[in-house]
Design brief:
CATH topology of the largest domain: Quinone Oxidoreductase, Chain A, domain 1
Helix content: 25-40%
CATH superfamily of the largest domain: Medium-chain alcohol dehydrogenases, catalytic domain
Strand content: 25-35%
Structural class: alpha/beta
Radius of gyration: 19 Å
Number of strands: 15
CATH architecture of the largest domain: Alpha-Beta Complex
Length: about 325
């Protein structure tokens, strides 16, 4: 088969579409013939050498795929060869085939094409696990979503609204602000001209930015507020005012989906299938796709993502 290989750490030109060995399913795994994968910020970090891989992880980038099951490992129940599925991965999605634990496989939601389904697992699992399972977002609370124009952001705005929260989001520019409001955001703040901290307080903040936003995030949280940091787009370090944390009884939590155990991921995926898939099938949560590219042009996808002009997900399609 072919896969996108990182020749050495560096820019997008370090991605190469080349021949590699086919995967075989271990016990409790299935092999998926990949129809499509989707880009995530973690893929860019991995390409730069800033995202250490968990032991045993495929070295190829790609945290989600859609496709058809072509092989089933020992002990797998509930999945059969030929089924159309999508799946959350620890790596290896930029390829023609991938082996994945059966607990991380999902059906394709009704009304979503097989290609589009590739863009669902990572964003939905990230948003649901952090907003609901970690932060405990409740109806009536105010949620701030940073990066409301990206794949995570567009999903978080909609799921937050579906859960009954008041949703505020930061975006870059009027077009992304208009999209955020169309998706249900009660307020869209252009971070280039406004300070989101002035529009608080917020009960829950979902942050993909990292260090540069830490102080303002903490200052703008309400009492008993929860800050969930899931990305480091603008800084690895920051100073934390512990007086603010103690006085307001704040929770500051850093999480990644990739490093969780297979058992934890299986629990999250089961919850997503149960709670988020009905939101998608009813139209309450819509997939936002910026564009599709051939998987052999993954480097171009990475350039687009790093430039920051895209809205929603960038999908890589196998020829």
């Amino acid at each position: 088969m072919k896969a996108v290989v990182i020749k050495e750490f560096g820019g997008p030109e370090m991605l190469e579409w080349t021949e590699v060995d086919d995967p075989a399913p271990a016990a409790d795994e299935v092999v998926i013939d990949v129809a499509a994968s989707a880009l995530n910020r973690a893929d860019v970090m991995q390409r730069y050498g800033l995202y250490p891989l968990p032991p045993g992880t495929s070295p190829y980038p790609g945290l989600e795929v859609s496709g058809r099951i072509s092989a089933v490992g020992e002990g797998v129940t509930g999945w059969e060869v030929g089924q159309e599925v999508c799946a959350l991965l620890t790596g290896g999605g930029y390829a023609q085939k991938v082996a994945v634990p059966a607990g991380q496989v999902l059906t394709v939601p009704r009304g979503v094409s097989l290609t589009e389904a590739a863009a669902l697992p990572e964003a939905t699992a990230t948003v649901w696990s952090n907003l609901v399972l970690t932060a405990g977002l409740k109806a009536g609370e105010t949620l701030l979503v940073h990066g409301g124009g990206g794949g995570i952001g567009t999903t978080a705005v909609q799921i937050g609204k579906a859960l009954g929260a008041r949703v505020v989001t930061t975006v870059g520019g009027p077009e992304k602000a208009a999209l955020a409001r169309e998706l249900g955001a009660d307020q869209a703040i252009d971070y280039r001209s406004e300070d989101f901290a002035e529009h608080g307080p917020y009960d829950v903040i979902l942050d993909v930015i990292g260090g540069a936003y830490l102080d303002r995030n903490v200052r703008s949280l309400a009492g008993d507020g929860r800050l969930i940091v899931i990305g480091l787009q603008d800084g690895l370090e920051a100073t934390l005012n512990l007086v603010e944390v103690l006085y307001k009884r704040l929770s500051v939590i850093g999480t990644t989906l990739r490093s969780r155990s297979k058992a934890q991921k299986a629990e999250i995926i089961a919850d997503v299938q149960k709670h988020v898939w009905p939101m998608i099938e009813s139209g309450a949560v819509k997939l936002v796709v910026d564009r599709t590219l051939p998987m052999s042009e993954a480097a171009e996808g990475h350039r687009l993502m790093e430039a920051g002009g895209h809205t929603g997900k960038i999908i890589l399609v196998n020829d």
